[in-house]
């Protein structure tokens, strides 16, 4: 009798242990499944060529979908708040991708700096970057490639392009009012003349090309030496914009305009926005990096 009772207790314990093991196994696999579902995966870059504001992908959080717009959609029909929102949703991912391109190039330069012997391809790339930034050496080049806060990029792009409505922006993807003095490059005439001469502005294939050219200009021009020096020690946009007076003939008035644009539109929040991890095997992204 006692043997039978002990055997029953043993069976109950075995069943209890089995239930516990099954429960823990379920919890374990549910945890793995949750990790799989909620872990961000590398994303591919999407290229959109649209003239419709309705096709613009919304930016709902600080992780921004990697999409490149080949042009600024027609925004004149929107009210001012919707116009600003759509403009930012187009320019923000493009700015982050442009920063990513510069960052990747900077990482490659650091690798070359520590490399004992450069290949012909390495040398060609390095020389090209030194020329683009008018850098004296690798250290100077890396210094000039420091990323510009996103809020400043957005503020200047919105100011110079009238939130995407200027003719230069619509017809030439020129977000920053960049003039052209080279008749051999793509450009369009401005609507006014200076000293009886026609003024031209650069024409870009895409907003991305315009933003990258802006980065190169800020990185190489002697007019922004002080800006780069301050950028090396601070990323505060309100401090940095005071060293952009040379960007416009309006000087101090231009800086005050940038400050108001950043403050009134809360653009500084975008300094914390980032891209998801880009898929290293993405053919589109590889072609973009290769092109620019």
Q: What is the fold named in CATH at topology level?
A: Lysozyme
What count of helical segments does DSSP give?
A: 11
Beta-strand share of residues: 5-15%
Poorly predicted sequence stretches spanning 5 or more consecutive residues: none
Cα radius of gyration in angstroms: 27 Å
Summarize the biggest pleated sheet.
Answer: 3 strands, antiparallel
Give a count of the beta strands, DSSP E runs of length 2 or more.
Answer: 5
Could you state the order of secondary-structure elements as H and E?
Answer: HEEHHHHHEEEHHHHH
- Average the pLDDT over all residues and give the rounded result: 90
Cα distance, first to last residue?
86 Å
Main structural class: mainly alpha
The CATH architecture is: Orthogonal Bundle
Shape: globular
Fraction in helix: 40-55%
How many distinct folded domains?
A: 1
Within the largest sheet, what's the order of strands?
3-5-4
Please give a handful of descriptors for the protein shown.
292 residues; mainly alpha; Lysozyme; three-stranded antiparallel β-sheet; two-stranded parallel sheet; 11 helices; globular
Secondary structure layout plus pairing:
Blueprint: H1 2-38, E1 46-48, E2 67-69, H2 80-113, H3 120-132, H4 138-144, H5 150-161, H6 167-172, E3 179-180, E4 187-194, E5 197-202, H7 207-220, H8 225-231, H9 237-240, H10 252-264, H11 283-291
Parallel strand pairs: 1-2
Antiparallel strand pairs: 3-5, 4-5
Helix pairs in contact: 2-5, 2-7, 5-10
């Amino acid at each position: 009798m006692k043997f039978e009772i002990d055997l029953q207790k043993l069976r109950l314990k075995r069943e209890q242990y089995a239930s516990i093991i099954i429960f823990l196994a379920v919890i374990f696999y549910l945890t793995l499944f949750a990790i799989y579902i909620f872990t961000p995966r590398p994303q591919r870059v999407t290229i959109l060529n649209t003239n419709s504001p309705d096709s613009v992908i919304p930016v709902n959080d600080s992780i921004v979908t990697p999409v490149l717009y080949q042009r600024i959609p027609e925004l004149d029909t929107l009210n001012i708040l919707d116009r600003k929102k759509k403009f930012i949703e187009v320019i923000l991912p493009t700015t982050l991708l442009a920063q990513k391109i510069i960052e990747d190039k900077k990482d490659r330069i650091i690798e070359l700096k520590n490399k004992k012997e450069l290949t012909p391809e390495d040398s060609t790339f390095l020389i090209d970057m030194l020329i683009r930034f008018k850098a004296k050496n690798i250290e100077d080049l890396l210094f000039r490639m420091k990323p510009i806060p996103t809020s400043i990029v957005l503020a200047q792009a919105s100011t110079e392009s009238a939130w995407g409505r200027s003719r230069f922006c619509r017809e030439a993807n020129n977000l920053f009012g960049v003039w052209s003095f080279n008749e051999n490059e793509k450009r369009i005439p401005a609507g006014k003349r200076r000293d009886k001469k026609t003024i031209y502005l650069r024409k870009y294939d895409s907003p991305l090309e315009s933003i990258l050219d802006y980065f190169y200009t800020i990185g190489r021009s002697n007019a922004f030496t002080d800006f780069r020096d301050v950028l090396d020690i601070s990323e505060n946009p309100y401090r940095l914009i005071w060293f952009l007076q040379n960007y416009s003939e309006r000087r101090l008035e231009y800086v005050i305009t940038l400050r108001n644009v950043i403050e009134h539109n809360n653009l500084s929040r975008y300094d914390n926005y980032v891209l998801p991890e880009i898929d290293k095997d993405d053919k589109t992204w590889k072609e973009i990096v290769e092109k620019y």
